[in-house]
Design brief:
The complex is a heterodimer of chains A (188) and B (872). Chain A is an alpha+beta fold. Chain A has 5 helices and 12 strands. In chain B, helix 4 packs parallel to helix 5 and helix 15 packs across helix 20. Chain B is an alpha+beta fold and 872 residues long.
C-alpha cells in the first residue's frame, strides 16, 4: 500500500526534509535539527505541513470542539479518532492544512491577507475565512502554549503556491519550516 | 560606502543620502528642467521639490535627497544631453518667446501636427525612462490600528504619546529617516525632543514606520503608506493601514520666493541648507546671502556662521532684485547693491502640508495672520495638529514680481509672467489656470508652487486669497511607483495531485485559469505538438490512454432531498436516478440559456456526486446554495474538488489494465456504460464512473488526492504492456470533437439554448418545475434561430475558431471548434448556422486562410455515430 502524500511532498523533498510515516502519510519530521527548529519557531515564526489531519464539514454543532465557519456550517479537525455526528462529510483530502506558529506569525499573515489578525480581532480559539496569498483560506487560531499559532486551511490545489508565498513573505522574519518532530517539542 | 554617478565613483559617509554625498563631492547641478533644460540644484532636501530626481539602479524619478546610499548603487541623471553640466537643449530657453503659455493648445491645432511633433517632444522633454532590466521586489502589507499619526515631528510624537496612553494600538508614520521633524536640524529642540522620541520608541503599543510616507487617505479611514527599503529583500512596501482615527501631523514645509533666476543652483531653501548642514555635515556654500523676514533669517545666519559659512548679507524679500549667474549662482542684485556669493539662502513662506486633510473631506481656509491656508471642517475620524494646522505660522510680505525668469512651477517651468499671460487670456479661475499652465501639476504636486500661483492669480484678478482659493489635492500625493501598487509577482498556481508525475513524463503545460494542465506530452521520438497529439490520439482509439481530469469541479451532496434540489436546478430528472447510475447533467438559467454541464452520479440513496466544468465550480456551488436557501430541504453540499484527483482511463484495452488492479467486475454486464461504483483500485478506495467523453470504453476514476499520484503511477505500470499513453488536453479536445461532444462556453455562448445545441434529450419538460422551464418550453417549439452543426471540410486546411461559414456568398454562421480528424481524414468541426442550412448533407463554405473551402454539414458524430464503442 503506497503512502499518502500531501500537496507539498515534492516541495519538501526539494527542501531536503527528513520524512516520517504518520497515520499512513509520508510527512516531514524535520528540515534541520528539531531542537534548532523549535528555537527558531519560539523566537520568530515557523510553518509546518499537517495536511494529514482529519477534517469534516458539518451542518450542526458537533459534540466535540467544532469551529463555526458560518450559519449552520462547522468544521471539525483533529487526529483520529473523532467523535463524528451523522451527516459529516469527510473533507480531509480537500484542504492542505498548515500550522503557522510563533511570535512573528501575525506579521507574516499581515503581508498576505487584509484580515485583521490582532488579539482583539481573532483571539485564541476563534476562526475566520479570508484570502491569504490570493487563495481562499480558513484561519483557525489555536495557540501553542501561549505562543500565537494558527491552522491555515487552503484548497489542496493551491497548497504549494500558498506555502511558497508564506515562506517568501516570512523570509524577513526568519520564518522556518518545521516538521512533526519539532511540533512535538513545541507542544510538550 | 561608494556608488557610481554617471562615469565617476562617489564616496559616501554612513547615513548619507545620494544627494548629500553628491553635494559633498562638489556636484551642484542635479537635474535639468522639463521644458527649458535649465540647470537645477538642491532646493528642499526633504523630498518635496522636483529638483533632485534621478535614475537609481534603473528606477526613474527617484528623489535622491531622501534616498539613502547603498553600496555600489548606480545613479544616473535624467533629461540631460550630453551631461548635466552642458545640456544642448538648454538653448530652448532662448526661444521661450516661441513657446508661450498654452503652447500646446495654440500650436497643435490639427492631429497630424501633433503626431509629427510628438516623437521629438518626447525625446526633448520628459521625466526619465523606465528600464526593464532591473527586476525589483515590491511588497504589500496590511495593518490595523486604533490611531494613525502621520508625521513624526514634535506634534506627531506628542499626539502618538497621547493616543498610546489610552491603551490603543498606534502607528506613527514619518517620511524621513528618523523621528524629530524640524528638531533634527533646528538647534533649539535639544534634549526634550530626544526624551520624547525615546519615550515613544519604548511604548509597546506604538509602531513606528520611518522612511514611510502616507500618499492617500481613502474611504473608511484607509491610509495608503509607502515604506522604502522595508528589508533587504524588497525595495518598497505598500501598507494598507486601516485605522479608527487619523491624526495629521505632517507639519509645514518651506516654499521658494519669487525673483528672477530663483531657480539657479545655489539658491536653496533655508531648511534645505540646515538639513544638509546638520543631518549630513555638508556645507552648502562658502559665501551666503540670506533672503527672508528678520526673525527666521537671523536664526539661520547664526547657524551658518557657526558652521563657518560667511554670511555676506541678510536681505529682506522686498529689497531683492534678482539672482545672477549661469550654471550656478554667482551673486544677487539688491536695492542695496550687488553682492557676490555662491549660496542664496531663501527663508520662504511655510505652507501647512494638509493634502490628507482635503482628501478626508476637510476644507482649507485662508488665514491672513498666518499667511497660509489652514484646515477646517474636519470629519470626526480625522484631526490635525501642529504646523499642519497652522500652529506656528506667521505671515510676512512676499513680493510676486512678473518675470519670464521668476519660476513659480519648477516641475514644468511655469514663470510668474506665464501665469499673468494665462490670466490675461481668460483663465482666471485658479482651477482653470492650473490646467492651462500646468502649474502645480508636476511631480511636486504643487508643494513648491501652489502658494505663489494663488498669490499671482489673486493679484492679477484683484480678488483676495480667500476668494481665489486652493486647488484640490488628490491621492496619490506624493506619487507612488507602479511596482509598489502592483505588489509582489506571486500569481497563485493550482496544481493537480499528479502535477509532478506529469512533469516527469515530459508534459508541455498550458494555463487554464489558475490551473496548470498538460497540453500534451513530449514523445520519445518527437516533441512536435502535432505528432505527439496524434500518437496520444492513436493510443486512446486503438489501445489505452490516461488523462488527468482533476480540474473537474466536484460536489458531494448528502441528504434525503438531494434529488429534489437537483431536479430543480438541472434540466434532467435525478430523483429517479438509481444508486449506481450516472446521468449527464445540464444546467440552464431562467432564460433557458446553457450555464454548465457535467455528470451526476448517485452513490447511495442519500448521496450524490456531482461534477462540473473546471471553470464553473464556484458558480454551480453558489447556484445550488441559492436554490437550497430557504427551501427547508435536507441537503448538505460540500465542495470536494481538491479532495479528489481524477483520471480517465480510456480505450479498447482500458478494461484489461484496470482488471489487473481491482476485484471490481468491469464487464459491461456488471458495470455498464453510465454506471458508477465505489471500488478499490490498487488498494486505494475510489469512485469509478463509466462514462466516455472521448468516445471509447473508459472509466473516470476519482481518487483521494493524497493517493492520486500513487494510483496514476500504478495505472501507468499496469498499462505498460498494453502501450498505455498519458494524453493531454489537446488530444482530449480532438477525441471529443470527433464524438461531437459539446464544450459549454466554447461551442455554446451566452445565447445558446439546449434545443439549438441538439441537447433537447437532456431536458425533462414534464417535470412540474425547474429553473428555466418556461423559457425552455417555448424554445422547444421555436427552432427558428440557429443550430449547432458538424461539418467535414472537403478541401485542405484547418479553419480557425470563429471562422466564417458562408452560403451563397452570404455570411451564414461561424465555426466554434475545429481539428483535423484522423477518423475522417479531413478537417472537421462544430459551428453555428441558420436553421435552413442545418440539414444532413447540406453544403456550406468555410473560410480557411482567407479562402472559401466547401464543407458537408452533418448532424451525426464524426466517429462511431452509434456509440457502440462506448458500450463495449
Amino acid at each position: 500500500m503506497s503512502m499518502k502524500r500531501s500537496a507539498l511532498f515534492h516541495l519538501h523533498q526539494r527542501a531536503g526534509a527528513k520524512f516520517v510515516e504518520h497515520q499512513g502519510w509520508e510527512l516531514p519530521s524535520s528540515f534541520h535539527l528539531p531542537e534548532h527548529e523549535a528555537t527558531e519557531v519560539r523566537r520568530n515564526a515557523g510553518l509546518a505541513d499537517l495536511s494529514h489531519q482529519l477534517k469534516f464539514d458539518l451542518q450542526k454543532q458537533p459534540h466535540q470542539k467544532g469551529w463555526c465557519l458560518g450559519a449552520n456550517h462547522y468544521l471539525m479537525m483533529g487526529e483520529a479518532p473523532l467523535d463524528l455526528p451523522a451527516g459529516a462529510i469527510d473533507v480531509s483530502s480537500v484542504y492542505s492544512s498548515f500550522r503557522l506558529a510563533g511570535p512573528r506569525s501575525r506579521d507574516v499573515l499581515n503581508k498576505l491577507s487584509s484580515l485583521n489578525v490582532s488579539d482583539a480581532s481573532i483571539p485564541n480559539l476563534s476562526c475566520a475565512q479570508a484570502s491569504v496569498a490570493h487563495a481562499h483560506a480558513i484561519l483557525l487560531r489555536e495557540d501553542i502554549r501561549s505562543m500565537p499559532a494558527f491552522h491555515l486551511l487552503v484548497s489542496r490545489d493551491y497548497g504549494e503556491a500558498v506555502w511558497e508565498s508564506i515562506v517568501h513573505a516570512g523570509h524577513e522574519f526568519h520564518l522556518c519550516p518545521f516538521g512533526l518532530q519539532t511540533l512535538q517539542l513545541l507542544l510538550h | 560606502l561608494k556608488f557610481h554617478f554617471q562615469d565617476r565613483v562617489v564616496e559616501a559617509k554612513d547615513g548619507d543620502t545620494i544627494a548629500a554625498a553628491l553635494y559633498r563631492s562638489g556636484q551642484r547641478i542635479f537635474s535639468r528642467s522639463f521644458k527649458y533644460h535649465r540647470p537645477r540644484g538642491l532646493l528642499c532636501v526633504s523630498g518635496k521639490c522636483p529638483n533632485c530626481l534621478m535614475n537609481v539602479d534603473g528606477i526613474p524619478n527617484v528623489r535622491t535627497c531622501i534616498t539613502p546610499v547603498r553600496d555600489d548603487m548606480s545613479v544616473k541623471s535624467q533629461n540631460a544631453y550630453p551631461s548635466l553640466e552642458t545640456d544642448l537643449l538648454s538653448i530652448t530657453q532662448r526661444f521661450d518667446w516661441l513657446m508661450p503659455v498654452g503652447w500646446y493648445y495654440k500650436t497643435f491645432t490639427h492631429p497630424a501636427m501633433w503626431h509629427a511633433a510628438e516623437p521629438a517632444i518626447r525625446r526633448a522633454a520628459g521625466l526619465g525612462e523606465v528600464l526593464t532590466t532591473a527586476p525589483r521586489e515590491y511588497e504589500h502589507a496590511w495593518m490595523h490600528a486604533d490611531t494613525a499619526v502621520i508625521g513624526g515631528g514634535w506634534a506627531g510624537i506628542l499626539a502618538a504619546l497621547e493616543a498610546a496612553a489610552t491603551g490603543g494600538q498606534v502607528v506613527l508614520v514619518d517620511d524621513q529617516h528618523a523621528l524629530g521633524g524640524q528638531g533634527r536640524y533646528r538647534k533649539e529642540a535639544g534634549k526634550i525632543l530626544v526624551d520624547l522620541i525615546q519615550q515613544v520608541q519604548a511604548l509597546p503599543n506604538v509602531r513606528i514606520l520611518c522612511d514611510s510616507y502616507c500618499f492617500g487617505l481613502y474611504e473608511g479611514n484607509l491610509l495608503g503608506v509607502l515604506q522604502r527599503d522595508p528589508h533587504p529583500g524588497a525595495v518598497e512596501r505598500l501598507i494598507h493601514l486601516r485605522t479608527q482615527h487619523t491624526t495629521v501631523a505632517t507639519g509645514a514645509y518651506e516654499t521658494p520666493l519669487l525673483f528672477p533666476n530663483n531657480d539657479l543652483p545655489g539658491v536653496m531653501l533655508s531648511t534645505g541648507v540646515l538639513r544638509l548642514l546638520h543631518l549630513y555635515g555638508v556645507r552648502a556654500g562658502k559665501r551666503a546671502v540670506i533672503v527672508g523676514a528678520s526673525a527666521v533669517s537671523e536664526e539661520v545666519s547664526v547657524d551658518l556662521r557657526e558652521a563657518g559659512i560667511e554670511v555676506v548679507r541678510i536681505v529682506s524679500p522686498e529689497q531683492l532684485g534678482a539672482a545672477t549667474g549661469s550654471g550656478v549662482v554667482k551673486g544677487v542684485q539688491t536695492k542695496a547693491g550687488d553682492f557676490e556669493c555662491d549660496l542664496v539662502v531663501v527663508c520662504g513662506p511655510r505652507v501647512p502640508d494638509a493634502g490628507l486633510v482635503s482628501q478626508a473631506g476637510g476644507k482649507l481656509e485662508w488665514c491672513g495672520l498666518k499667511g497660509a491656508f489652514v484646515p477646517t471642517g474636519l470629519p470626526d475620524h480625522v484631526s490635525v495638529v501642529g504646523d499642519a494646522a497652522g500652529a506656528d505660522l506667521v505671515a510676512f510680505a512676499t513680493p510676486l514680481p512678473s518675470s519670464k525668469r521668476a519660476f513659480v512651477c519648477l516641475c514644468s517651468d511655469v514663470s510668474s509672467q506665464d501665469l499673468c499671460d494665462g490670466i490675461a487670456e481668460g483663465f482666471d479661475h485658479i482651477e482653470t489656470l492650473k490646467r492651462y499652465t500646468t502649474a502645480t501639476m508636476g511631480p511636486c504636486q504643487g508643494r513648491m508652487c501652489q502658494l505663489s500661483a494663488i498669490g499671482v492669480c489673486a493679484r492679477e484678478t484683484g480678488r483676495s486669497m480667500a476668494e481665489t482659493g486652493v486647488t484640490t489635492s488628490r491621492p496619490p500625493n506624493p506619487g507612488v511607483t507602479l511596482g509598489a501598487l502592483a505588489g509582489p509577482s506571486h500569481h497563485p498556481i493550482r496544481r493537480t495531485p499528479m502535477h509532478y508525475a506529469h512533469e516527469k513524463l515530459g508534459a508541455v503545460w498550458m494555463d487554464m485559469s489558475d490551473w496548470k494542465r498538460p497540453r500534451y506530452y513530449k514523445a520519445q521520438s518527437t516533441s512536435v505538438q502535432k505528432d505527439c497529439v496524434l500518437e496520444e490520439y492513436r493510443a486512446v482509439r486503438e489501445g489505452v490512454g490516461i488523462i488527468d481530469v482533476s480540474t473537474l469541479g466536484k460536489l458531494d451532496l448528502r441528504g434525503a432531498d438531494c434529488g429534489r434540489l437537483l431536479d430543480k436546478v438541472y434540466t434532467h430528472r435525478f430523483s429517479d436516478l438509481r444508486p449506481g447510475r450516472v446521468r449527464y447533467a445540464l444546467m440552464c438559467d431562467e432564460g433557458g440559456i446553457i450555464l454548465d454541464d457535467g455528470t451526476i452520479s448517485r452513490l447511495s440513496d442519500e448521496r450524490y456526486f456531482v461534477t462540473t466544468t473546471s471553470g464553473n465550480l464556484d458558480f454551480v456551488h453558489q447556484w445550488l446554495d441559492w436554490y437550497l436557501a430557504g427551501s427547508g430541504w435536507d441537503v448538505h453540499i460540500a465542495n470536494v474538488t481538491a479532495g479528489y484527483g481524477a483520471m480517465n482511463v480510456a480505450g479498447p484495452r482500458s478494461r484489461e489494465v484496470l482488471r489487473k488492479l481491482t476485484d471490481c467486475d468491469l464487464t459491461s454486464g456488471a458495470f455498464p456504460y453510465m454506471a458508477c461504483r465505489e471500488a478499490v483500485v490498487s488498494g486505494i478506495p475510489v469512485i469509478m464512473l463509466r462514462i466516455g467523453f472521448v468516445g471509447e470504453t473508459g472509466w473516470e476514476i476519482h481518487c483521494p488526492a493524497e493517493s492520486s499520484e500513487a494510483l496514476w503511477e500504478a495505472l501507468l505500470d499496469a498499462g505498460r504492456e498494453f502501450g498505455i499513453r498519458p494524453f493531454g488536453v489537446e488530444a482530449q479536445r480532438l477525441l471529443r470533437l470527433e464524438k461531437r461532444h459539446v464544450i459549454v462556453g466554447l461551442d455554446t455562448d451566452a445565447l445558446t439554448n439546449p434545443y439549438e445545441a441538439d441537447m433537447g434529450w437532456a431536458i425533462k419538460l414534464e417535470k412540474p418545475e425547474f429553473v428555466g422551464k418556461a423559457a425552455l418550453s417555448r424554445a422547444a417549439k421555436d427552432l427558428s434561430r440557429e443550430r449547432l452543426i458538424g461539418f467535414v471540410l472537403r478541401g485542405p486546411g484547418l479553419p480557425q475558431d470563429g471562422a466564417a461559414i458562408v452560403v451563397d456568398g452570404q455570411l451564414a454562421g461561424r465555426v466554434t471548434s475545429s481539428r483535423h480528424s484522423p477518423a475522417q481524414q479531413a478537417a472537421v468541426g462544430l459551428g453555428w448556422v441558420k436553421v435552413a442550412q442545418a440539414q444532413e448533407g447540406a453544403s456550406v463554405d468555410v473560410r480557411v486562410d482567407g479562402k472559401l473551402v466547401p464543407a458537408r454539414v452533418t448532424m451525426q458524430p464524426f466517429y462511431d455515430p452509434e456509440g457502440g464503442r462506448l458500450r463495449q
